[in-house]
Please model this.
Amino acid sequence: MGVVVEVNAETDFVGKNEKFVDFVKGVAATVAANKPADLDALMDCKYNGTDRTVTEQQQEMVLVIGENIKVRRFAFFTDGFMVPYIHAGGKIGVLVALDVAGGVDATAIGKDVAMQIAALNPRFWDKSQVTQDVLDEEKKIMMVQMENDPKMAGKPENVREKIVMGKMNKFYSENCLLQQEFVRGDVFTGTVEQYIASAGKALGGTVTFKDAVRFEKGEGIEKKQENFAAEIASMVKG
Model:
């Protein structure tokens, strides 16, 4: 089983604190042991190795460290060959799941794929996941761009349609992991999908991409001012 969690603190300094790191590992172990359905369920679970809930342990860590700490999200996979990867000093976490046959160790392959995901943050894993709504919107944008291009505006609409269809391959190569050019050109030249297959074959087995999750610290969080002193005071009174 593979687990990735995001636990937020207020400063990078706390992020390197041994007690904070141990707390994060404990949260991950709690997820692995309980497989909670969502964040609320996780917070109600008994924190790994204790009689406290995760919520209670989190509150304890806030008081011990003196800084706001919050378990924000988690994800886990139960099937596949799991490869975790931490990037940019803990700011990005990636968990890759591969299907592996032939008893090969695909750790290096998974790490290379995870590095690509961390660096390029693809919108989709494979072009088959791109919905029709997304395709229609991309085609609409391309058509408008051609209408505003003097060299293209005079061409018949059916010709522009064909040009747009040709450009969709570029969209896939920029936005879909498996269709992206593998960034480590020193190792392999081709797409990520081709790299995985080639590297697996070189190891004497078969390796294919199964799934992945990418967490970037703080993504989607609105920056806001909080009265942390008041929050600590209320916890102490409680």
